[in-house]
Design goal:
The structure is a single chain. The protein is of the alpha+beta class. About 35% of the residues lie in helices and about 30% in strands. The chain has four helices and six strands. The chain starts with 6 loop residues before the first strand and ends with a strand. The structure holds flavin mononucleotide. Flavin mononucleotide binds next to helix 1, strand 3 and helix 2.
Length: about 160
Amino acid sequence: VTGFSGLQRLIYASRWTDPVRPDIEDVVSDILARSSRNNRAANVTGLLVFHRGWFLQVLEGPLEVVDDTFDRIRRDERHTDIRTVADLPIAARAFGEWSMAAERLDDGMARHLTEFAIDDSFDPATLDPSSAMALLLAARAARMETSGEAGLAGRAA
Ligand SMILES: Cc1cc2nc3c(=O)[nH]c(=O)nc-3n(C[C@H](O)[C@H](O)[C@H](O)COP(=O)(O)O)c2cc1C
């Protein structure tokens, strides 16, 4: 039995808009700069995964600030087709390491995720909540492996 934490986990999928496509690294850097500042202040943590035209992001934190953050994110014209994959209260954070971090699913990593068959036709919006969690946790593990290096991450407070 878990007590009331007031924490919420929101997972959504979206598609890059076309202007983003050639400059995804720059766009992700800009998102992380804004996210580290805003999320740290709001006690939000999470992870942003990107690959072949899509984003999958998890946000964790107090319910109201997660909702406010998502309201702001969904108005951002750098992505479209925003679809909520999971939105649920949690007892504890699973992505508490970073105010926000980004992990590109490279083909090497995607190949290990055979359960998802992450090819050109893969659409993260069709993931059920537990598969989305499995994918995000795999990306988190990959992010942890490289976290000793200077990477695209902002530390959580
Ligand atoms: C895929 C994606 C993920 C984002 N994630 C976050 C986030 O976690 N936190 C955040 O504050 N802004 C995030 N943003 C940026 C917001 O849409 C918005 O640009 C930003 O919050 C504005 O911050 P500012 O008013 O401090 O410039 C994201 C944008 C995109 C496209």
